[in-house]
Amino acid sequence: MRVRVCKSAKREQAGFQSIGPRGLWGNSLVSLRGLFLYNTGMTAEEKASVACFIDVASDMVRGGYFRGEREYNFSDEPDAVGSFDSLDEIAAALKNCKACRLCETRKNAVPGEGAQSPLVMVIGEAPGAEEDASGRPFVGKAGQLLDKMLGSINLSRETNCFIANIVKCRPPENRDPQPDEIAACAGFLESQIQTLNPRFILCVGRLSSQALLNSTEPIGKLRGRFMDCKIAGMTIPLIATYHPSALLRNEDYKRPAWDDLKMLRAALGSSESGAT
Ligand code: SF4
Predict the structure, then answer these.
(1) Which of 43-52, 92-101, 143-152, 167-176 is predicted with the least confidence, judged by mean pLDDT?
(2) Is pLDDT at 29 greater than 90 in this prediction?
(3) 101 Cα to the center of ligand 1, angstroms
(4) Tens digit of pLDDT for each residue in 150-185?
(5) Model pTM?
């Protein structure tokens, strides 16, 4: 259902730019908008009205207010996320999910795959074209490299890893997922983490690392150390590293990525010896 409400011109037409702390506050409001809207039972029209109110507030915080028309594509579907008893239930729910605009262009939602009691949950950003076509995570060239990276420290999706993304549907043209899309999908990821209860999380790429650590630091600053990921009522040690597709583009990232994997291997070793 497409709902048209509120007067406000398109930002691009108005030459709108978000700069400095005002831009950051404005962006935070938009992120909150996603969190707020996608976890309620509101109708599409109600969601559009609230979104419009928050967007105007966000524009004003950023330093501008525009007149004109704005469209919202909310759906009347119930909440994207409910409570689930199993990974299969989560996968079934997200395959029919229409809680954000990515449902309009996906071929297949990509829940993730791997061991049901994993040592490590690997979390990337979003499905690409091959993942969208197959419904499986990390199956392209980057996925093959990820499998090799994991294999080098005795991990694999067949035995002791679960691989997923922060959003389950492919963003068009492989663009970055937007904050409201990440927020809309966050409940599915939380439910997966709660169900899987992994011993460690390995985040590959900037967006998943920032989302799970609630940070805006670049990946170069987030990687190279373990941090606590507080999610779904749990605290799980998380290490971030470069996305395999970044490694394919830039050889310089291979050495630090290998250093991160060695840290994970050492932590897995000590956690196993500590457990015995
Ligand atoms: Fe639903 Fe997530 Fe797909 Fe958006 S990305 S439609 S929230 S499953």
Answers:
(1) 43-52
(2) no
(3) 8
(4) 999 999 999 999 999 999 999 999 899 999 999 999
(5) 0.74
Domain 108-275, classified CATH 3.50.50.60, yes or no: no
Domain regions of the chain by residue span = 2-74, 108-275
Return the exposure string of 47-62: e unless at least 16 CB atoms fall within 10 Å of the residue's CB, then b.
bbbbbbebbbebbebb
Atom from ligand 1 closest to the CA of residue 106: 3
Distance in Å, CA 186 to ligand 1 centroid: 9
Q: What is the CA radius of gyration of the chain?
A: 19
**Residue 48 Cβ < 6 Å to ligand 1:** no
Six token digits for residue 188: 């599915």
For ligand 1, the distance from its centroid to the CA atom of residue 111, given in whole angstroms, is: 10
Ligand 1 neighbourhood includes 99 CB (under 6 angstroms)? yes
**Cα–Cα distance for residue pair 71/10, rounded to 1 Å:** 10
